[in-house]
Amino acid sequence: MKLLANVRQLLRRQPKQRPMTTTTSQAHDTTRTSGKPALTSAQLDELERNIELRHHRNNIPLIRQLIQKLQQGVDSELQRQLDDELQQLPNATNPRLLRYDNQPYELANYKQRALPAPEAAKEFSELARAFNLFRMDHLGNFTGHKSYYLTGQLAMLEQAIIQYALQTLSSQGFKLISVPDILPREVIESCGMRTEGERTQVYKLDTGECLSGTSEMALAGFFANRVLAEQQLPLKVAAVSRCYRAETSGLQEEKGIYRVHQFTKVEMFAIATPEQSEATLEQFKETEISLFKQLGINFRLLDMPPCELGAPAYQKYDIEAWMPGRQMWGEISSCSNCTDYQAKRLNVKYKRASDGSVLHAHTLNGTATAIPRLLIALIESYQNAASASITIPEVLVPFMNGQRTITRNKRIPETKLVKFIKSP
């Protein structure tokens, strides 16, 4: 996908003295103006400051070299290299975030319920095993590392959470789309996730395609190379999918199902005009807050600093739940405004009603529910030591056939590792 048709295009205006006036939208602008460098030295300096602010890989020195070489004459291989490096530039950064340094800013803290005393609170894995509803041990030989089974009432609770989230999103105008889990590499990279390199989180197949890390990618790809009418926007869609992540962690606080290679997630996604995208992000944020308030867990809302935005996000909110058994905050949701970062790469446009102009849209995404971590927060928050049970949040009871508590599962046999010794 070409990001720059000719490096002799011009963005001649010198940047004003305010944060990030030269955006990646300008760097990837395909409007051709011949005879001038694509980006001035001052604009490249500004892009480099944004990269450093976001702790992104600094490829500006290489971009400078490629532009200088291409000014001496057109070379298709150099042009391809420049296009690839431009594609890796991160999005611009919301100026509001510049004052946060490298720390998230807590916007709100929601205390919904009294929790068990720290010394009495048990961790998810201990509770789930005691109730015979979970298995994660000794699976390496047939399902691989960081795999898990949910059984009985815990598997039902997973489905209840999904149905609860979908009912909420449907009532707010989201349209459900069933998405594929196998995607072309180009779609994943256009969404801002690299598929090559040692630190990639993407599983690659022998065919060259990849397993999707989130349905955001498939939803964005669904709108690739399309021109939507402005009257259709903001267009809000949702999907339930399995998410595949090659990432691993040896941290003690991330043990168990906190960080796994595959999990289920309900995702929100929207296409909006530039004028609508900020308000749409706020709607996503309020939807997530409402979902978790009704679940009755304790959580906090964070405005994330530039170094936590990744490549595509212009701004991002995170929601972290308090996990009593682990005695830690754990991220359970986020929502991001990617402005036109993904739309330019996937060619997602809209036709403006006032004058018929065809412009790049903005894309937004948010997590309605990420099952494993939400299960941790729910089970640890609703544990009842006295009755040896777990209370089901009231809002989930209708999706659990009226069941209000989880107790020990006696129908599914316990799995025990047995060692067979051959007799002599």
Automatic annotation (TrEMBL):
UniProt cross-references to InterPro entries, sorted A to Z: aa-tRNA-synt_IIb, aa-tRNA-synth_II, aa-tRNA-synth_II/BPL/LPL, Ser-tRNA-ligase_type_1
Broad class of enzyme this protein falls into: ligase
Entry's Gene Ontology molecular function annotations: ATP binding; serine-tRNA ligase activity
Domain of life: Eukaryota
GO BP term, example: seryl-tRNA aminoacylation
Residues reported to bind L-serine: T214, R245, E267, N365
UniProt cross-references to NCBIfam families, sorted A to Z: serS
Protein name: serine--tRNA ligase
UniProt organism field: Drosophila rubida
